[in-house]
Amino acid sequence: MTSTGLVLFVVGLFILRMFGGFGLSSLIGESTLWNRLLNLLPLSLVSAVVATQVFTTAGSLVIDARIVGIVVAIALSVRRAPLAVVVVGAALATAGTRALGWG
């Protein structure tokens, strides 16, 4: 992702959040479903960008040691580990997998 793409992504996400907070609240009222969906939308966009960055290189799908790090991060997150533990655990898993010669 280029720096221009990243800036456009951040600005678009900011506009979406502001529009959701100010503009849509009068249209959707007190709908709990819509509020939950609007709160999850930025998370899904960021997740899509992360997945694109992790699993692609030069426009092609790449399966390598980064997948092990993602799996470890997901497992630690499900167990509600602190963020530092998740990050260090994922980094160690990826580094260990690369040291063993994969990816």
Give the terminus-to-terminus CA distance.
Answer: 21 Å
Number of domains: 2
Largest sheet: 2 strands, antiparallel
Uncertain segments are none
Number of helices: 5
Mean pLDDT across the residues is 81
Strand content: under 5%
What's the arrangement of strands in the largest beta sheet?
1-2
Number of strands: 2
Structural class: mainly alpha
The coarse silhouette is elongated
Radius of gyration: 18 Å
Helicity range: over 70%
Helix-strand pattern, N to C? HHHEEHH
Characteristic key phrases:
103 residues; mainly alpha; 2 domains; two-stranded antiparallel sheet; 5 helices; elongated
How would you describe this protein?
The protein is mainly alpha-helical and 103 residues long. It folds into 2 domains: 1-55; 63-103. It has helices at 3-22, 24-28, 32-55, 66-78, 83-99, and strands spanning 56-57, 60-61. A two-stranded antiparallel ribbon has the order 1-2. Strand 1 and strand 2 (60-61) form a beta hairpin. Helix 4 packs antiparallel against helix 5. The radius of gyration is 18 Å and the shape is elongated.
Question: Quick gist of this model?
Answer:
The chain has 103 residues and is mainly alpha-helical.
Topology:
Layout lengths: L2 H20 L1 H5 L3 H24 E2 L2 E2 L4 H13 L4 H17 L4
Antiparallel strand pairs: 1-2
Helix pairs in contact: 4-5
